[in-house]
Amino acid sequence: MSPPSLIDAHPHPAATAPVALSYELFPPRSPAAAESLWTTIGELETTNPDYVSVTYGASGSNRGTAVELINRLVQETTLRPLAHLTCVGNTPQQLAGVIAELLDVGVRGILALRGDQPKDGTEPAQGSLRYAQDLIELIRRVEQRRSALLCAGKVAVGVAAYPSRHPESPSEAHDVEVLLAKQRSGADFAITQVFFHPGQYEQLLARARRAGVTIPIIPGVMPLTSVRRLTRLGELTGVEPAPELLERLAAADTDAERNRIGVAATVDLANAALDAGAPGLHLYTFNEHASALDVLDRLALPRPGARPGPRRSAAPRGGTERRLAS
After folding, report:
1. Helix (H, G, I), strand (E, B) or coil at 92
2. Is 137 a catalytic residue?
3. Which residue among the candidates 24, 43, 45, 137 is catalytic per the annotation?
4. Contact 54, 81 (CB under 8 A)
5. d(CA 291, CA 67)
């Protein structure tokens, strides 16, 4: 008879994991945008996030600037990048080269996305990948061929999840089946698209768990401080933001009042997700740090290693210093 497992003897060998924290950034489009972005990066770095995601343009339109930003994050900061990668319009050979390039600069996390279909109606090149599931499987094949270089480690692969029905999907149930297929292909975690109503994350989690999805599903939350941005994202996602929130933001007399209203609404959204069992929060920053840090100040999440001030000195500082609970 084999000896009893020490793990079985101690069913709770570790304390509850802290809430994960991450941000989304996108590559700058101009020198002025780059200067502003690096100020934001310095501010966000003080909160010691678990990773930052870097977006990737449709069909790889900004691949060069995305890889350049990722490379600088690896070399010049303590931040761990999660690289977005889209597959529509790209062949497996092209994508395998991009994956290898990302791994070579130090990326160990990839967010595997289908990407937007061409708006001009052109057909993708013959042999192009069509679905995120195909991209996940390709990442795993590239990883397997490079396992010695990775010290037999593993690349973390993330995917998108949808709290409300995807605009091209027949139903929310179909979205969950797609998420389950991504899990079977090797996805490690999911990050949700933007949502605006407190119950949406909990409902997604319930649907996913009933269907057999076991990977962590991290809510993606944006600071709800801009009427223009909320309206635009509502059009893209097919989910209308709360009319009363839009009305209150539009009626605000000052930017400070508008920010206060939006931050409070965002905190309510984040707390609802955390109460439902969210393992972390992913903040869509739009390359701006002030509102995101205001949200975190209100949430007071414990952040091991968070610092009272910036480590970087290459970029000028903007705004007041902020500190999360540690």
Report:
1. helix
2. no
3. 24
4. yes
5. 26
